[in-house]
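Retro notes
What went well: the complex prediction finally ran end to end.
Inputs used:
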Amino acid sequence: MRLILTSFGCGLLFGAGLLISGMTEPAKVLGFLDLFGAWDATLAFVMAGAVVVTAAGYALARQRGLPLFAATLQWPTRRDIDAPLVAGAVLFGIGWGLIGLCPGPALVNLAGFSEPVVVFVIAMGAGTIGHDLWRAHSVSVSAQTSVRSDG
Amino acid sequence: MHNFTPVSGFIGGALIGLAAALTMLLTGRVAGISGIFGGLLRSEDRGWRIAFLAGLIAAPLLAALAGHPLLKPAMPASLVVTAIGGLLVGIGTCMGGGCTSGHGVCGIARLSSRSLTATAIFMVVAVATVAIMRHGFGG
């Protein structure tokens, strides 16, 4: 129960951060990505704030060695740069650049229940399931490596 | 510069970082939204994932109770292009193992070479996509 309540609280805080930063607004995100237009550098400041605080928290977590409400710290372990990492980042970059929404802001925006956001999230889910089905099909041919994500 | 809001951006970013730090310190997990969402669809370890995503969606609802109107973002493209964008985000984050939060924030915070690589690639590709869509370079 503590894990569930804590996770809810972390999600809430994450959502509040996205709202305050303005990153739930596709126009702000596209304004950052539009280097050749009226450039809005805000996203760089959001990333900087997020990375600095996360790095400090992670350093503390490593020092403690154990999380408070779970058995282990589940650090991602992969280090190899493989083709799916590169191809996945390319596909994600195209989708992000087309609409200006990535998964976090898309889900926060789901609260407004507007048609385009609902369509985006359903498509995102379909892409996830489609990728898994395709992968499950193709690994029956080759040996399976980990499908666990980095984040 | 257009609508540049560095202060609220940095404060909001720091809150995102605090959420990511607490997710690791308290629950031992990486706060990567595409990973949490994808794991939910794969029915892996569902409880905490549902709770985290419910918290994300609750944020604007609580803000609405506090008097900030619920947002319905202006979308830059037609429904068909929106669906294509969502599909690409779903496939890409799944294949690449993360998104702006999992790779861009959590991965960079632990200086993961995979995350630094992925972030550099999706940033450059997204910039190129916007350049083509808005300014028609190369098209």
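What we learned: Chain B touches chain A through 118 residues (CB under 8 Å).
What to try next: split runs per interface for comparison.
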